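Ligand: zinc ion. Inputs:
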Amino acid sequence: MRITVLGSGTSHGVPMIGCECRVCTSSDPRDARTRPSIVVGIGGHNILIDTSPELRLQLVANHILHIDSVLYTHEHADHMHGVDDLRRFNERIGGPVPVYGAPKVLHDLRERFPYIFAHQFVGGGIPSLELKVIDGPFELYGQTIVPVPVWHGSTPVLAFRLGRFAYVTDTNNIPEESMEMLHGLDTLILDALRLEPHPTHFNFAQALEITRRLRPRRTYFTHLTHTTLHAEVEPTLPENVYLAYDGLRLEVD
Ligand SMILES: [Zn+2]
Ligand SMILES: [Zn+2]
Ligand SMILES: [Zn+2]
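Predicted complex:
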């Protein structure tokens, strides 16, 4: 399994519009963070998790030539609003792109992008999507996808476990039953917004507490803000805990 981090930034992205702080003006490419998304490659298939507003730029930059399926974590704009760019894959797949999400997420997708689902649409290009409700673990390309429910303030979010890898973004509360589902990991990508507390995201201290309890072989923090200068913060993290960055590739057995 090959993981590519397409975007490691928070909802504003880094640099943030109108900010000239030292992180937003950093020349270190690891400080340039697009909105959160990853691709999981399994054999010859690519599963995209979330469609960020920078989806096109992310796929081009990372030479991702095809996407076979999409999983949604939740309905927030930074995770969904690049959905139009999926139309490119209709040609490659030769049919609709399978899109998996919780019922509320698929409902919001239909409500926000009605033109995608209006069959009388004329002119321009729209993606053709096949919506598939997630109601428990399912198989894709020989891999079991385990949805792991977590809380993001009062918003329910799905984390995903695929074998010994898990992607757990946008959360400040992992219920005990879900913690149970996240033991024995090789690689964990985990929401850790910033040093300061936040009402709907883990901060670094809370995310470190999760890694202490779950003990994955290695952990990468994601959904990072412009308060984190990569070169300065990463050396302060414990062994086997790192900061994700756009373009990071990880192999997981
Ligand atoms: Zn987010
Ligand atoms: Zn800034
Ligand atoms: Zn969110």
